[in-house]
Sequence to fold (152 residues):
Amino acid sequence: MDYRESPMALKFLTALAREAATSRHEAMVLARFVLVGFSFTLAYSALSSLLALGARLTPPLASAIGYAICVPFAYLSHRNLAFRANSPHAVAFPRYVALQAPLLLLGAGLSWFAIRRLMLPEPIGFFLVGVTVAAVSFAAQRLWTFAEKKAD
Fold:
């Protein structure tokens, strides 16, 4: 009997192929998220630095304003490009906005810590904050905001 004719071997090979496809899909989602997220991290960093250095706002306030300006553009980019979600805007956008409040607080707190306590230059501090917040954001968006419904 050939191994390919064995029901157990067939199930194993099918499961292996499915896992490989899923892993590739997840890797592509992550790659697209990184591309979109990196773009908005740069935009956030530039806006926040401009507000902190040019307008002389405190780092937490500059961070919050820079972040808030990026939210609607980042939502559309993450929904349509990164996650390619089919979630209706009526569901996904409120979730995305609800997620932004704790992320905004995290960013403001980390900005204070990085710039005021660690004494990092504003552009470097804001960039590191952006990367950290992006990592938390990816997990939350993948698991909740744009979560795919599982077929029963």
